[in-house]
Amino acid sequence: MSGDWAASALGWWRDAGVDTIVAEAPRNWLKPAATETTLAAETPVTAGAGWPDEIAALRRWLAEDPDLPLATATARRFMPEGDPAADLMIFIAMPGREALVDGAEADLLDGMLRAIGRGRDSVYLAPLSTVRTATGRLSTDDLRRLAPLARHHVGLVRPRALLLFGDACAQALLGAPVAKTRGRWHEAETPAGPIRAVATIRPEDMTRTPGLKKLAWADLQMLMEGLTT
To answer: What CA–CA distances, in Å, run from 152 to 20, 34, 125, 165?
Structure first.
């Protein structure tokens, strides 16, 4: 492990308020809470007509097809990054202005990944929408159009776990916002069967409110334990 890598991880942990490596008592992160229920999204789980049923073909479709949700003839498309064979798939709502993730949010995301021993090459990072909307937001109608495609995408990748950043991703794949879904495991329904998922706070919000990093760190710890069991 290089000095820069370790310093970056330690910086993230410090910002997240981590002051000890182990807790006073063990915690079973995978044990469901007594009040937990599986959230079902309103969108269908079946594959869409005409969508490719192989991941390489789907990526070409995302890059080129004129019928892609929210795409226009002039809209710039930002493709998923990383390894489609990775055990962890990460969703963000939409690209930044110049890259899939850019600016301070990119630095924060990379720091979070380093803190759990990962890099961009060891995850599969995908946007719900490959194009950025004019408002930088996704409407309820947008999510209804994008959610079935996201479920199809996950079903082709079949990761061991999903990490969902922000309300749009949580709404699309779990049926509720982060405030109601973070802090415990869920199952995202896909045409290939359920995939375990964790929802957490998006990097943009943590950039504006650094205190939220403590909550995100708890979610990352839960994710790490789930991927190693």
So the answer is: 40, 31, 15, 18
What are the residues whose beta carbons fall under 8 Å from the beta carbon of 134, sequence distance 6 or more?
none
In angstroms, the first-to-last Cα distance of the chain is: 23
**Mind listing the pLDDT tens digit for each residue in 67-114?**
999 999 999 999 999 999 999 999 999 999 999 999 999 999 999 999
pLDDT of residue 229: 79
* Spatial contact of 173 and 41, defined as CB atoms under 8 Å apart: yes
pLDDT of residue 5: 47
Q: What is the pTM of this model?
A: 0.81
Domains of the chain and any CATH numbers: 3-9+48-227 (3.40.470.10)
Kindly report the three-state secondary structure assignment for every residue of 64-93.
HCCCCCCCCCCCCCCCCEECCCCCEEEEEC
Classify residue 25 by burial, with Cβ atoms within 10 Å: 0-12, 13-18, 19+: exposed
One-letter amino acid of 190 = T
* Number of neighbours of residue 84 by Cβ within 10 angstroms: 17
